[in-house]
Amino acid sequence: MKVVQTGSFRRKAKKLHATEKTALDRAVRKLVASPESGASQKGDLAGVRVLKFKVKAQQYLLAYSYEPELITLLAIGTHENFYRDIGKQ
To answer: How much is the pTM?
Structure first.
């Protein structure tokens, strides 16, 4: 399974703290093991899946697209304006 990051995802992930990066690594490993574990989106975001995970008490969302043998990481962030921002990409 190949995992690819978009430029905007890479920039956001670079700004995360160490504990957040550790949780992100666990979430990506979970995706590789079970790519369809995220919720499939509808409407403008069709084809995008979102996996929710927690860092301490804060919930983060990881947007990705899935094709056989390829996972593209699109965005990461908290719920505030998350869906609006990935809709613009």
So the answer is: 0.91
